[in-house]
Amino acid sequence: MSNIFDKRLGRAGGIIDEQLSPVETELDNATLIRIREKVYQRLDRALLANRKDVSVMDDIRRRVLDIVSDEIAVDNRLLGRLSRAGIADEILKDILGFGPLQDLLEDPDVSEVMVNRHDRIYCEKKGLISLTELKFRDDKHLRDTIERIVSPVGRRIDESSPLVDARLPDGSRVNAVIPPIGLDGAILTIRKFRKGLTAADLVRFGSIDQAGMDMLAECVRNKFNIVISGGTGSGKTSFLNCLSSFIPTGERIVTIEDSAELQMQQDHVVRMETRPPNLEGKGDITMQMLVSNALRMRPDRIIVGECRRGEAFDMLQAMNTGHEGSMTTLHANTPQDAAYRLENMVVMSGLNLPLEAIRVQVASAVHLIIQVNRLPGGKRRVTHIATVNGLDEKNRVRIVDVYVYKDDKLIRTDAPITGPLAQFLGK
Fold first, then answer.
1. Cα dist. 259→57, 65, 155, 174, 273 in Å?
2. For the whole model, what pTM was predicted?
3. What is the CATH number of domain 199-425?
4. Over the stretch 6-24, which tens digit does the pLDDT of each residue have?
């Protein structure tokens, strides 16, 4: 596994070189805290303020190693229990990285990191969740790490605002909660952002078969409006990223997100992100505002990372007014539930539209609903590809499954379909 720290420090795998008794372990942890405080006292504040600069990082590495050497030299007995390189490595993780979470964030097989409290750190690896042996020293150590994550992206977390959404520099999504909301201390959840995932990778992983992916690729190229539905952690955003790769390069794409996760491979892309309110509770920029503004930016396609509230109405308007081929994701367990969710979110826009008018909007705007689910064992899979066939006799949005997951592959159903998809499949 690659290490973001100086290779000269080595990989001690922790600060303790051998199996110690609880008393000895407590002594050594206290020593680490003392040395860490000395490092912060002696490090130039200008260096810490510019710790993201590569050349400054090199200076910090050298200074930390020198300070640790000086502190250990004061008491030679420490050399028998604590590794000089190990101490420096642990301190550098705090200064330049994310403390005990650093190795998990660098592990490509880890998809999610969950800190229930400072001494209970879980991770999801290859679809399975397990408790790790990693720990923060105390709740303050965890709180300091959270503060270091949220501050650079303009977010804040304190007792007056005890929960926050943010992201890491690589796009990984972060949620943090602190007391009084967190009853057992600070809580941190990081959903890692997987870079470079392609449509071919999804086929290889078994998320969808090649025939299904080829069909969806043609739907994207032919400007079908697509909604990707699924539960939390089912892979909606990853699937949206892969589908977007089939958009022709000459089209102008506008992306709108709460936290920047989309990876457009085209050149003509405009990216926008929401903004939270300031300390006075003002100045926030919502998804609904951005989707409405995107209509004035001459987009060929609008890609909304996830519809959660009233922005769904503006998204449907875009799909119905010359921006075919637009795409979004939403939380729902089935394609039919996705249609209901769209109706509910339009109601949340506050426009007081009749329910029948909302359903007409949904039926005319959405061409495909792709359902992705997380199966037992952690595997993500496309389980339904459905189309919208107008309204039924009770004026409800009629959802028809065109493909369903069965026997480890997508099976074409014999359900009658109408509209653009029927013409497309008849080619």
1. 27, 36, 12, 9, 7
2. 0.75
3. 3.40.50.300
4. 333 333 333 333 343 443 4
